[in-house]
Amino acid sequence: MAPPNRVVVGLAEEPDVLVQDFTGRHSTWAVLAPLTLKLVRYDDHWRPWPEMAERLPAPADGSWVRHPDGRTTMRYRLRTGLRWHDGRPVTADDVVASYRLLRSLECDYPHREIVEAIDDMTAAGLSLTVRWGATNPYAVFEEWGSVLPARLLDPLRLADPAAWPELPQLRLPISHGPFRAAEWVPGERIRLVRCQPHPRGAAAVDEIVFRFLPGSGELRDAVAAGEVDVTDLSGFTAADARALRAGGSGVRVAVVPSSMWEHIDFNLDDRHLRDVRVRHAVAHAVDRQAISDTLHDGLAEVAHSWLPARHPAHNDTVRRYPHDPRAARSLLSAAGYTPGPDGILRDASGDRLCFRLLTTTPSVAGGRWSASSTRTRAGELLADQLRAVGVELRVDAVPAGDAFRRFRSRDFPHLAMFAWSIALEANGHLMWHSGQVPRRAGDYGLNLAGWRSPTNDRLLDRIIAEGDPTARTALIAEQQAEWAEQLPSLPLFFLPQIDAVRRGLTGVRHVGAFGTYVTWNSWQWAWEETAR
């Protein structure tokens, strides 16, 4: 009897729902790629390509038009033959229905601002016209181009975000990808089964099973035991990579540069951290390369901005903060701090310069969140380095679910260390505009540092109003320079994506970027006959 034609994907985090527009979890996006088509998707070279659409809109053929009043019109034509999993054809009317459903919701949800930037959307058969307003006139493909089964979704039930994980159509949705959702066993697995061709070809495997194995050690052991064929969002460290490579030739280990940005947010409401000299001093006190060498075998690329070097808008000329304890002490002295009898600096009032760092503990079995296994040790290294310049650091490591709730509500007194996965279309507005400082629970603004800068705001307002890609890239580079001068966050490094693939499984192409995970081309995966 032939073995099952199945691929098991190991994830270190369980999704909450299986609809893009109602989640912020990376694991959801990883499961969605085989389940759901998008108008436009990104590949392993970080390039956009049309999936549901026949082609990308372009000024040359008139399908991308910038109007004199600042608005933009984009026209798509959907591919023929697209079908929902219940057999109904997918049309441009479904895209319009998705847009109207999202616009009707009064609750916050991810990317709401992107959806609300669309002035109007109309359909005629397979043709779709999208009109963007003058305040945000360009299409952020990855953040809005999903097509929901709007006819099956109840806006009244969607009005309560707390109820989303319990709604059947968000748990096992009818969608339009090459695989359909067949089973979700909470805490264990999601099973997808092949049901129809992808627009670029029929899938070769019959099933994709996603297993949830929080904790890189548990996931690594499952790979080594042959229970997992490919990993994503693994949280693997350099030590895990060494262990897998030492285990034999049955597994290929992939180390891919990624957009996963490990950083420390400064709470700029704190009276000490409000002084830019203190922030610069902390940056000079921290030896980021030493931390990378110690915890990541030097594979983590030291960051100087919030965009990775591979990103087209990355600015390589921003101000840098090399490890320089003498410069750190000089800055702190200039800011009015003097050493106390215990070696810790004190301000003019006699208060010790002591910061608390909120971060995550490693993932645990049965948990629903992934978290780096190295942050607790990183906190210890940071504490040693800061003490060398007279700053005390106390590390508060809590489970990831609690930590991210506190991060998102800015419930940390001084410092918060975690990672953002930077989207390929990131422009900085959601993370750094003063209007994106969360003010209440449920806000989706990501300016967790509380950075309020008129100069920065003006740049970000220009960025989202700029329709020309070249001009927009130049503005993002200018914003990075301003960001690096003011330093609302300390960039640590871009973590490598380390994943494993069972030898004999072909077609797997790693990406390393937010919103586009290893499953993006799962219809191309296939087993060599000798491997089954």
Automatic annotation (TrEMBL):
The keyword Signal applies. GO terms for biological process: peptide transport. GO terms for cellular component: ATP-binding cassette (ABC) transporter complex; periplasmic space. Gene3D superfamilies: Dipeptide-binding Protein, Domain 3 (3.10.105.10), Periplasmic binding protein-like II (3.40.190.10). It holds the Pfam family SBP_bac_5. Coiled coil: none annotated. Keywords: Signal, Transport. InterPro entries: Peptide/Ni-bd, SBP_5, SBP_5_dom. Residues 57-422 form the Solute-binding protein family domain. Belongs to the bacterial solute-binding protein 5 family. This is Peptide/nickel transport system substrate-binding protein. It comes from Asanoa ferruginea.
